[in-house]
Write a structure and sequence with these properties.
Order of helices and strands: HHEHHHEHHEEEHEHEHHH
Strand order of the largest sheet: 1-2-3-7-6
Number of strands: 7
Structural class: alpha/beta
Radius of gyration: 20 Å
Strand content: 5-15%
Number of helices: 12
Distance between the termini: 57 Å
């Protein structure tokens, strides 16, 4: 979680310095969800994420250097510099986006889960999406088919209370999202998304149920983003007092305090973790600065198919 937090904070600096261009959506405040869920998954499972996916990618094991190079648009990035912030991808780690379209990853995740079920693979496909995506038709179509076909699909809704700048009570008639999801005939429950241990327990319980043939599961992670929707967003739709109230439940601070109280991590070890992460991110930035950009001759690569002679 600390790696994700420090990575995101560095992205703020780099964006402000015009080193990173385009849209950037920060995950600060929601780290417990990505980390806790990924702890319950195996390398054979698949992960599909949203455009706010830097944290998911890092938690999945994609190196910070590859993520940072992608942010810079360099060829050494995990998507070859072609995706940028919203399209991180690593097929080797079964990380299938980074999807910029709201709810766009849901039907893709259903397809991956269906493929595993048809092949008899004991794998789970986990799809992260926000409360704004919950209101889209893709969610309801995916939930219906997943339950109907008994797909090994873990639906993780990161309910941070705002669909861009729209509060959840202004776009959902029923704000208990787990209750509505259960109407599709799948196991569904809400989780404290600011507590990484609670997230891990819930995700492991769901993943074990899915692997055992129990069908899809839905987890409503009640969380909060401390930063605006994107770096372009002036964030004038939230009361500052509300933000500060949620910051008092900071998932990184809560875990640090808990480990100190339990004697698991002292100040010396925590300082060592901070130092290692700083060095890792410094190296990732330096590598991204030095990495080459794609040559103009390669711009059509992966865009058009090769010409084929027909006899």
């Amino acid at each position: 979680m600390l790696r994700i937090r420090r990575f995101e904070e560095r992205c703020v600096e780099l964006y402000s310095a015009a080193k990173i261009r385009g849209f950037v959506h920060l995950y600060i405040g929601e780290e417990a969800v990505a980390v806790g869920v990924n702890e319950a998954l195996t390398p054979e499972d698949a992960v599909v994420a949203t455009y706010r996916e830097h944290g998911h990618a890092l938690a999945r094991g994609i190196p910070a250097e590859a993520v940072m190079a992608e942010m810079y648009g360099k060829v050494t990035g995990c998507s070859g510099g072609r995706g940028g912030s919203m399209h991180l991808f690593d097929a080797g780690r079964r990380f299938y986006g980074g999807n910029a379209i709201v709810a766009g990853g849901l039907p893709l995740a259903a397809g991956l889960a269906l493929a595993d079920r048809m092949r008899g693979q004991p794998r789970v496909t986990c799809c992260f999406f926000g409360d704004g995506a919950y209101a889209e038709g893709e969610f309801h179509e995916t939930a219906n088919l997943a339950a109907l076909w008994n797909l090994p699909l873990l639906l993780v809704c990161e309910n941070n209370l705002y669909a861009m700048g729209t509060a959840i009570e202004r776009h959902e008639a029923q704000t208990d999202l787990a209750l509505r999801a259960a109407s599709y005939g799948m196991a569904a429950w809400a989780v404290d998304g600011m507590d990484v241990e609670a997230v891990e327990r819930a995700a492991r319980r769901a993943a074990e149920s899915i692997r055992g043939g129990g069908g899809p599961c839905f987890l409503e992670m009640r969380t909060y983003r401390f930063r605006a929707h994107s770096m372009y967003d002036p964030d004038r739709y939230r009361d500052k007092a509300e933000v500060e109230q949620w910051k008092a439940r900071d998932p990184v601070t809560r875990l640090m305090d808990r480990t100190r109280e339990d004697g698991e991590l002292g100040e010396k070890k925590l300082a060592g973790i901070e130092r290692r992460i700083t060095e890792e991110i410094d190296a990732a930035v330096e590598a991204a600065e030095q990495a080459p950009e794609e040559s103009a001759e390669d711009l059509l690569r992966h865009v058009t198919s090769r010409s084929v002679e027909v006899a």
